[in-house]
Amino acid sequence: MSSMKPGRRRFLKGSAALAGIAAGAGVPAAGAFGVPDERTPGTKYATEYGERSRFEAEATKRRHDYPQRPFPAKKLTPLQNSVGIITPNGLHFVADHYTPPDINPEEHRLLIHGMVERPLVFTVDELKRLPSESHIYFMECLANSNVKDRGGPVLDTVQELHGRTSCSEWTGVPLSILLDRAGVQTGGSWLLVEGADAGRFSYSIPMGKAMEDVLVAYGQNGEAVRPEQGYPLRLIVPGFEGPYNVKWLRRIKVVDQPYMTKVETILHGYLRPDQKGKALWFQFQMPPKSVITRPAGGQTLPGPGFYEITGLAWSGHGAIRKVEVSTDGGKNWKQAKLQEPVHSMAHTRFRLPWTWDGEEVIIQSRCFDDQGEAQPSLAEMNRKLGVTDEHWLKTSVSAYQFNAIQPWKISRDGSVHNAMFDSATLARAGSAPGGADHTEH
Questions:
Q1: E strand segments, 256-340
Q2: Is residue 11 part of a domain?
Q3: If you ran DSSP here, which 8-state letter would residue 266 be given?
Q4: Rounded to the nearest 5°, which phi and psi values hold at 95?
Q5: Same domain for 263 and 199?
Q6: What's the per-residue H, E or C state across 375-436?
């Protein structure tokens, strides 16, 4: 009987496999492993704050339909290069309607008034003296996953399609503490929250959500919230559509009804194509969504062999309970492994080992949360809204929670492309005549 323990046997087996990969490589030349000659001067740090290696080139990307803006009004997170679940502050997506203000925190004030017993004004330092909490939450633009930009072609890469979501650890004061201090009057059932940007971006929030888990945040991932993210104060409304998370927060007014502000009315209502004259309002929570980030649109596989399929899943209703992956266009599904920790209303990393045989294939993922919500196929979304595939191709989705399953086509040359509206994919997914819906679980 062998005396080797299972762990040691696995180690030796893995070492043998690695040795096989390296066989015939020969003796490496000096410096082949990236170790510089000690006589070569190293790179000096540019600033005391620190910066990424010059070899790490991932960056946010401007939206195609806003190239003329003098400020980064629309920036997309490079999900394809993300590891884990936390988005670095400099890579967090940006979606602004107005020019960001330059605010001195010593001069900034937060006013709470309206239907309250005691109107209050807080400085930033006063807020930092109050009990604080830190939570990991995702944030997502309600128009994330647009299939195309205004007047442009169907988008192809994971960053262009799904880059308007990010995940951070947010630190701040629970809004409930501030409202309790102010004393909400009977009938105060909504909040009007306002930012200090040039357009006074304002939004209506139900009181129930405000008292549950909303934060007045001044910290992001261990440092002060950055200017493009609302410095020095912003609202964090877990799981809700991005616009509710008002930046550069300056005023909170307790009211008895939603105010239907300019941005709520003009930009963030969704006219239903199946019911003329009717619109969807106050959708609140972002629905469950998942996307494979590797291999994904815009990438190229160097050849057949082993790959780890990985991606992100999230839901504004709660925590992700399960993610399934299909590597045959939706015919069969395998349960992926969820990487711990799994937080409620946060990005969740999933992984599945896979060996590509070099043939054309469609890969996709779908997720399920702990509240019983499931990510739909495109066919299911179409049935729910009473539309066809042509609806999404003719109009850009500017204000709707599009969360259909995202298929990626891997061609024989290894290139990966968006297959959402590929005819063969639609047939398999039940979005074309004669197709079958394979979203049962």
A1: 270-271, 279-280, 289-294, 305-314, 320-326, 334-335, 337-338
A2: no
A3: I
A4: -145, 100
A5: yes
A6: CCCHHHHHHHHCCCHHHHHHCCCCCCCCCCCCCEEECCCCEEEECCCCHHHHHHHCCCCCCC
CA distances from 134 to 18, 342, 374 (A): 42, 15, 28
Residue 171 near residue 216, CB atoms below 8 Å: no
Averaged pLDDT in 10-residue chunks for the chain of 441 residues: 49 43 44 51 62 71 48 79 94 86 95 98 98 98 81 83 96 98 97 92 95 98 95 98 95 95 76 68 90 97 97 98 97 97 98 98 98 94 83 66 94 96 56 35 32
Give residue 286's pLDDT: 95
Residue from 348, 339, 293, 290 nearest 319 by CA = 348
d(CA 232, CA 126): 13
Do 328 and 222 reside in the same domain of the chain? no
- Tally of domains within the chain: 2
- Indicate whether this model's pTM tops 0.70: yes
Residues 192 and 299: their CA atoms lie apart, in Å, by: 43
